[in-house]
Specification:
202 residues, alpha+beta, Ribosomal Protein S5, domain 2, Alpha-Beta Plaits, five-stranded antiparallel sheet, four-stranded antiparallel sheet, 11 strands, elongated, IMPACT family protein, Impact, Impact_N_sf, Impact_N
């Protein structure tokens, strides 16, 4: 069985959605994120926008092979907000995504069951408004070679339709390429067999 080398994520942040339950308002935000720094930036932005709200609950997951996730109830009863939000990220099968649900209390207590349902529904509606895309898991390599070997390198890159991330072309050249994980071994061997080219994983 081939190892899975694709993952699902969102391509951009949609407009926030609003869900109402017994006078409480829940605003659902979704952001594509790659790391905790991006999570914090988006959280700060939403908190600024809704500075008078009562709770800013969120959940995120990043990574494709090493998964990092967090769910935060932000003052709501334990596991009544963050985990129902995170459950929707899992239900949609996504990664590299952050969901923030902002709650304005409407004066009527919802109880733990009501909160779980409200946060889950808001997260579900917010994700439902996203465009979900599939991406490939890629390995990155650095190619080092003399300028005279440029044609050999470029021919393989072109034939194999490899993506160049960065290049420095002088007397000695360096090119960073991105290779789909399932093709990585084949591409690595191809360059390794080519005289005068050094390849190493980034």
């Amino acid at each position: 069985m081939k190892a899975k080398d694709t993952y699902k994520t969102i391509d951009a942040s949609p407009k926030p959605i609003l869900f109402k339950e017994k006078n409480s308002k829940f605003f659902g935000y979704v952001f594509p994120v790659l790391n905790e720094t991006e999570v914090k930036l988006n959280l700060d932005k939403v908190k600024k926008e809704h500075h008078s709200a009562r709770h800013w609950c969120y959940a995120y997951q990043t990574g494709t092979e090493q998964i990092i996730f967090r769910a935060n109830d932000d003052g709501e009863p334990s596991n009544s907000a963050g985990m129902p939000i995170y459950g929707q990220i899992q239900s949609f099968g996504l990664t590299n995504v952050l969901i923030i649900v902002v709650r304005y209390f409407g004066g009527v207590k919802l109880g733990v069951g009501g909160l779980i349902q409200a946060y889950k529904t808001t997260a579900q509606l917010a994700l439902g408004s996203c465009t979900i895309i599939e991406k490939t898991i890629n390995n990155q390599y650095q190619l080092s070679f003399e300028y005279k070997d440029m044609n050999k390198v470029m021919r393989i890159i072109k034939e194999q339709q490899l993506q160049i991330i960065h290049q420095q072309l002088e007397l000695s050249c360096n090119i960073a390429i991105s290779v789909r994980k399932r093709d990585a071994l084949k591409i690595h061997e191809m360059f390794e067999r080519t005289f005068g080219i050094e390849i190493k994983k980034l």
